[in-house]
Structures are given as structure tokens and as C-alpha cells.
Write a structure and sequence with these properties.
Elements (H helix, E strand, L loop, with lengths): L1 E4 L3 H11 L1 E8 L2 E6 L25 E10 L2 E6 L7 E6 L1 H14 L6 H9 E6 L24 E6 L2 E6 L2 H9 L5 E2 L3 H15 L16 H5 L3 H5 L8 H5 L6 E8 L2 E8 L19 H19 L11 H5 L6 H10 L5
Parallel strand pairs: 2-6, 6-7, 7-8
Antiparallel strand pairs: 1-9, 1-10, 2-3, 4-5, 4-12, 8-9, 11-12
Bound molecules: iron/sulfur cluster (2 copies).
Length: about 350
């Protein structure tokens, strides 16, 4: 275990960027999101939750895949280069780290997504424990420990000091890179900090949320429930919930013409949109109720059915805070809970 004074963090960041790119929470126009570090970046380590999750460091909101160029009568395909430079993400929270595990099971399963895999191979995550979890958080319901982020390096901001513990080989390598700035530390304060975080978590309003009646075995029962017809009605189909979510992974692939040829790119999409997965014959889901049901069935039934019981929600609470119609996964789980999980 090591520590570094908060006032020396800029030095730490400078040392990292001598070798690698660095992403961390930056406040721009009043909103904090992960962005590349620079000397004049408005680093914001006090805001608990970034507006968007940091998933776009590994799964960008849009990215080119390849370009097709015409050379004489021949077409030449130029794939986009894979990430080849190491980088560090500083300040991810435990829920968002768990979100990456959810994405891994999708993008690193056969057939492996090489763009995502390259970023995962080159990225080192320094996660920051949540000093003060907020009322919209319910990560514990999904087995996430806000006090013990399972990343390459776990860190705790306690008063004016940051405590640092490497948990993986990547974390050890990064620690070596910045070791001259770190000093040896006892675990005592971190143990106290963890206890304080756990005490806050236990008192959060959604701690009693029960996942009884969900999981991979309840497909027909939950799919056919009449509750969806009531629950979906306020949904505006805006897609905000999917764009802020650390585990949503729907995307679209499109082509556009450039002066150089035709480029193919992919960008985030939303299962809440009426044209999502639109095909020549039309759309598989023809009503907003079906689209709304799909989002929650995927997180609470389909994903666990295919991934050893792991849910594809990590309880970050962003949808609770951001949905303009006050709809969210908590409301869905509670509605079924109220009906005894039998609807
Ligand atoms: S549930 Fe809320 S955030 Fe999601 S699409 Fe509907 S209105 Fe938008
Ligand atoms: S469904 Fe909501 S609470 Fe769950 S991970 Fe996504 S944004 Fe967070």
C-alpha cells in the first residue's frame, strides 16, 4: 500500500503522460465526464458520478472501422488501425469497473471484437473508491462493493491523501512507473474509510431492492407480464437511459462517403429507438412497450441467462437521475416486487 498527497496528483498525472495517454474526470461547461488529461483540463475528482459512464474509453460513441478506396477499377479496403498505445484511466468507480466486465463478456466472446480487445489490452484502470455514495446508488444490490473497486489499481481519497494499491500485473507495472512519487503507507486509514463507506451504503434508499424472481429462468413469465403495458407508458423513447448506462452495448454500423472513398463506422444505438435493428421487412419490435420491455428483460433475464447469472445492471443509478420521465430499472424491479414477482 502506498499514498500520495492530493496536492502532488498533478505531478503523478504528468509522470503518467510521459509514457501513456491519461483519461480522467474533467468538468466542461458544468458537466463532468472522462476526457484526456492536459495541463489546463478542469480535473474534477469530487463529483461522484460522471454524466456518461467511462465505457467510451473502450467502446467509443462512434469510431471508423475501415475505408474502401477506389484505385482504378479495383476497390481497396483499409482497416482502421487498432489501438496500439498504452493508456491509463484514472478515477473510475467500482460500478463502472463492473460495467467493463459486462462489456467484456459481450465483446471478448467469440467472435472477438478486435477494436474493443485492443483497447482493453492497452488500458490500465485506476479505480477510486466512492467516498460518499449517493441516494441514487444501489450497486450493492448487484454485488458491487463501492469501497473495494476491483481494478488494476484501487485507490482511496482520504482527506488530503490518495491511497494506492496495485491489484494486478498491469497495476504493478504502473506503480513502478510512478513509484518515486509514492510513499509507503499503513492500511489503517483505508480500513476505516471502507467501514465508513459501507455504513453509508447500508443506509441508501434502494438497498432493500430485491432481485428475487429475476434471473435467467423466468423468461416466459416475465416476458408475458401485463405490467409492461403499464410501466412503459411515460417513456419518451429518448434513449438517454441507454447512452448514460455503463453496460448498454447496442450499436449501429453505417457508411458515409468521403473525398477518399467510403468509410464504414459504428456508433452507439439504443434499443429504445423505433428504428433500432430496422430491416427491409420492418422492425422486430413494433411498439414502444416491446422496446421498453426489451431493455429491462435484457438486463435482468437474457444477459444473466447467457452469462452465469450475472446481471447487466451495476446499480450506478444514472438512469434514476437522468430519465426525463422518471422511469428506471429501480421502478421496474419494484413494480414486479410489489406484485410478488408473479406477474
Ligand atoms: S426510459 Fe426514460 S430515459 Fe429511457 S428512453 Fe424512456 S424516457 Fe428516455
Ligand atoms: S440500468 Fe441504470 S442503474 Fe443499471 S447500470 Fe444502467 S444506468 Fe446504471
Amino acid at each position: 500500500m502506498y499514498k500520495i498527497a492530493k496536492e502532488n496528483l498533478s505531478q503523478l498525472f504528468r509522470q503518467i503522460v510521459q509514457e501513456q495517454e491519461l483519461y480522467l474526470p474533467v468538468k466542461t461547461a458544468g458537466q463532468t465526464n472522462f476526457a484526456v488529461w492536459s495541463e489546463d483540463a478542469g480535473v474534477d475528482l469530487d463529483t461522484l458520478k460522471t454524466v456518461k459512464s467511462p465505457k467510451d474509453v473502450f467502446f467509443p460513441q462512434s469510431e471508423n472501422l475501415y475505408t474502401v478506396k477506389k484505385e482504378g477499377k479495383k476497390l481497396h479496403v483499409e482497416p482502421e488501425e487498432l489501438k496500439s498505445q498504452d493508456f491509463v484511466i484514472f478515477g473510475m468507480k467500482a460500478c463502472d469497473v463492473k460495467g467493463v466486465e459486462v462489456l467484456d463478456r459481450v465483446f471478448l466472446s467469440d467472435p472477438i471484437d478486435t477494436f474493443y480487445a485492443a483497447r482493453r489490452n492497452h488500458g490500465t484502470i485506476i479505480a477510486l473508491a466512492c467516498h460518499e455514495p449517493e441516494e441514487s446508488c444501489f450497486c450493492k444490490v448487484f454485488g458491487v462493493d463501492a469501497a473495494n473497486p476491483a481494478a488494476d489499481v484501487a485507490a482511496w481519497m482520504i482527506g488530503e491523501e490518495l491511497y494506492w494499491k496495485a491489484l494486478t500485473e498491469k497495476g504493478e507495472s504502473l506503480t513502478e512507473l510512478v513509484k518515486d512519487l509514492l510513499i509507503d503507507a499503513e492500511e489503517t486509514k483505508v480500513v476505516e474509510e471502507k467501514e465508513a463507506i459501507h455504513n453509508i451504503v447500508e443506509k441508501l434508499p434502494y438497498m432493500n431492492l430485491s432481485l428475487d424472481g429475476w434471473g435467467g429462468d423466468v423468461l416466459t413469465e416475465k416476458f408475458n407480464s401485463g405490467l409492461w403495458e403499464e410501466l412503459y407508458k411515460p417513456c419518451l423513447a429518448c434513449g438517454t437511459c441507454t447512452f448514460v448506462c455503463p453496460t448498454c452495448q447496442c450499436y449501429d454500423i453505417k457508411d458515409y462517403t468521403t473525398a477518399n472513398g467510403v468509410s464504414r463506422y459504428r456508433c452507439w444505438d439504443s434499443c429504445m429507438y423505433s428504428d433500432f435493428t430496422m430491416m427491409a421487412h420492418g422492425n422486430n419490435r413494433t411498439s414502444q412497450m416491446q422496446r421498453f420491455r426489451q431493455r429491462f428483460m435484457h438486463k435482468l433475464v437474457y444477459y444473466p441467462a447467457n452469462n452465469d447469472g450475472i446481471y447487466s445492471c451495476v446499480g450506478c443509478g444514472r438512469c434514476v437521475e437522468k430519465c426525463p420521465a422518471s422511469l428506471n430499472i429501480v421502478k421496474v424491479i419494484k413494480a414486479f416486487q410489489k406484485q410478488g414477482g408473479e406477474q
